[in-house]
Amino acid sequence: MSITTAGRSLSNDMVAVVTASQLSPILLASLSFSTPVNLWSGYGTITVGGTGYLGMGTLGTISPIAETTDLAARGITMQLSGVPTALIAVALAENYQGKECSVLFGALDASGALVSSPVTIFAGRMDVMSISDDGQNASIGMSAENKLVDFRRPREVRYTNEEQENLHPGDKGLEFVTSIQEKQIYWGNAKLSAPINDGGAEPEYTGYN
């Protein structure tokens, strides 16, 4: 038996847990800062796929994650409270915008152990960070864009040698684009003294073969 939602399949162990009378769900968040930050909604440290997630308990919150049948790009917000003031400066100096982040859904069994492998329920990029610090307590909020928002960004590609080299290093297909823009080309007879693209004027022949 398996349950598939929005293209994601739950393992048999996860199916058994989420269909049971009692459920202990957890959320895990990964933020790709220069030093990766991995947090989860419980206490202590939990390891998933070789990565350790630090438990934040009630100090961390994630907004509801909405999914629709259309291709709407719906973002989320994450908030972390009780942040030491010393770490605020680190957050301000970090070049984080556009870096990847993800949220996973998992569950714990009756003994508190992780059930199977968590499933990704959100994947996107970090957008805007907001910091609140009243001198005693500090909190950091982070908004994240869904990866679908990339479809709304314009892709500007120019037919230049530099652009071609950037996309395909070593490709010389557009090497002479610049030089031929103003080049006069004589077609058919090498003895023509005027180009054929001179505004419609009749070419002047200097001789015949």
Structure in words:
The chain has 209 residues and is mainly beta. It has two domains: 3-152, no CATH class; 155-209, no CATH class. 11% of the residues lie in helices and 32% in strands. The chain contains three helices and eleven strands; from the N terminus they run ββαββββββαβββα. The protein has helices at residues 12-18, 85-93, 161-167; strands spanning 3-5, 8-10, 25-31, 37-40, 45-48, 51-55, 60-62, 76-81, 100-107, 119-133, 138-146. β5 and β6 form a beta hairpin. The longest helix is centred in the middle third of the chain and has 9 residues, at 85-93. The chain is elongated and about 95 Å long. The N and C termini lie far apart (86 Å). The model is unreliable at 1-6 (pLDDT under 50).
Arrangement of strands in the largest sheet: 5-6-4-3-9-10-11-8-7
Q: What is the rounded Rg? A: 29 Å
Number of extended strands? 11
Task: State the separation between the terminal residues, measured CA to CA.
Answer: 86 Å
TL;DR?
This protein is mostly beta strands and 209 residues long. It is built from three helices and eleven strands. The strands form two sheets. It has a nine-stranded mixed sheet with strand order 5-6-4-3-9-10-11-8-7, with helices on one face. A two-stranded antiparallel ribbon has the order 1-2.
Give the SSE map.
Elements: E1 3-5, E2 8-10, H1 12-18, E3 25-31, E4 37-40, E5 45-48, E6 51-55, E7 60-62, E8 76-81, H2 85-93, E9 100-107, E10 119-133, E11 138-146, H3 161-167
Parallel strand pairs: 4-6
Antiparallel strand pairs: 1-2, 3-4, 3-9, 5-6, 7-8, 8-11, 9-10, 10-11
